[in-house]
Amino acid sequence: MKINQISFYDQFNCIGQGCPENCCMGWFIPLTAEDIKRLRRERGMLGLRLFAATGGWQRDHFNEDCRYCPFLNKENLCHLQLKKGHSFIPEVCREYPRFYRNYGPLEERYLDLSCPVVCGLFYDNMQDLHISSTQEEPFSGCYITNDDPVLLQRLLTIRDELLAALSNLSGYEDLQKTLLAITAYAGAMQHACLNYDASLESLESFETFRRRLEEGQIVLRPSDPVLANAFPFHISVYNRLMGSSFYHENLSFSNATLHGLCRLFLDDFSRQLSTQKGWEKLANAYFLQYPEHARLYGAYLAYYLFMYFLRTYETYSFVKQVRTGLIHTNMVFLFHVLFSQKKQKPVPADLIRIISVYNRRAYFSDSVLDDMYKALDS
Questions:
Q1: Shortest CA distance to 322 belongs to which of 144, 185, 169?
Q2: Could you tell me which residues come within 8 angstroms of residue 165 by beta carbon, excluding any fewer than 6 positions away?
Q3: DSSP-derived secondary structure letter, 68
Q4: Is 313 within 8 Å of 152 (Cβ atoms)?
Q5: Beta pairing class for 106-111 and 2-6
Q6: How big is the chain by its Cα radius of gyration, in Å?
Q7: Across all residues in the chain, what is the average pLDDT?
Q8: Cα separation of 32 and 74, whole Å?
Q9: Half-sphere exposure of 335 (CA within 13 A, CB side)
Q10: How far is 321 from 325, CA to CA, in rounded Å?
Q11: Which is it for strands 2-6 and 131-135: parallel, antiparallel or unpaired?
């Protein structure tokens, strides 16, 4: 089978106790039926600990309160792995941060940016993000029910066009224009599928669409707030996003770094962020100081599209997928701006850690993500 994976996929290595955002903290840890069957065979003191960690085998997960896994020891290492080996620990722990999606004729393999090591690899490779292809056996079974190979190939081509457009952006204005064009193009994809041909063969290339948009041959709907402010969002949108279930005081226990960033928005800079003019002043000052970061946000959205754009093969939700990517890109940008106001010059490790802790919160809870999406248009 054809395998697509991000170019640095094979470079990932867990750093264990040296990790600044250990994956044994902040999440509940789901157990598969096979995990439970294997773990329940354990006897002795370890068996009792497993019994207690699952509420007497009444829960299909560890870490009920999303703070610290009960098997994380004082050295920030997994007691289960040390005691019984890597094959004994839950499947999600063995695989994280690797994810697989089998689309029938091809499988794609991803590394998630919620892991700070992956974020570091992403940052080091962001000027040359590309997909490597091989032929080998898949790791997973077919993920979707759609079996239209023409549509799948067209989606892959469109994704390649979008990723190319987001590579090596020349600056703030280029970033803004590109994100606006991608958002508008998502609407054109949605329209093509709903009204013409589900294979999208009737849709022009992204570069042709973008050129016509810039020449004024395509007129956008001024009533659409996202089209008016694809990047950065209007301050009212950020207020709605922060007022959704994305922020909760319990983050101080499960994701302390992100909680601190949210408090910068809600407390330390609330006066400056009370008006659109104040927000624009902060955003413009940030890009005057760090113009090279335009490439970072382009690459971040490109990475999101690499992982999630093909969901449209099943759902045809082009607008939702692209807008969700815009939410994430804008939120990461917001936190980078706020952090830079507190620190004279954020180093790559700071930028990387912010991306990691944000992704942990915004990518792994459907309810949180749904609330954020609803807030976009409310």
A1: 185
A2: 178, 181, 182, 206, 207, 210
A3: B
A4: yes
A5: parallel
A6: 22
A7: 92
A8: 27
A9: 25
A10: 6
A11: antiparallel
The C-alpha atoms of residue 285 and residue 336 are separated, in whole angstroms, by 12
**For the segment 27-51, what is each residue's pLDDT rounded down to a tens digit?**
889 999 999 999 999 999 999 999 9
The token pair that represents 11 in the structure block = 């470079």
Q: Which amino acid is present at 198?
A: A
The tokens of 352 are what?
Answer: 């990387």
pLDDT above 90 covers a percentage of the chain that reads: 75
Cβ neighbours of residue 138 closer than 8 Å, sequence gap 6 or more: 1, 3, 100, 102, 107
Query: Tokens 């009533």 appear where?
Result: 223
Which helix (H) or strand (E) is 132 found in, with range?
strand 131-135
Q: Which DSSP category does 265 fall into?
A: I
Q: Pinpoint the alpha helices (H) of the chain.
A: 33-39, 44-53, 79-84, 91-95, 116-125, 149-165, 172-195, 206-214, 225-228, 235-243, 251-254, 256-263, 276-289, 293-308, 312-315, 318-342, 348-362, 366-377
- Locate 280 and state its tokens: 């624009």
* Nearest residue to 353 (alpha-carbon basis) of 267, 256, 284: 256
Task: Collapse the DSSP code of 104 into the 3-class scheme (helix H, G, I; strand E, B; otherwise coil) and give the result.
Answer: coil
| pTM, two decimal places | 0.94
232 cis-preceded (ω within 30 degrees of 0): yes
Distance of CA 286 to the CA centre of its chain: 23
Strand partners, 6: 131
* Beta-strand relationship, 29-30 and 61-62: antiparallel
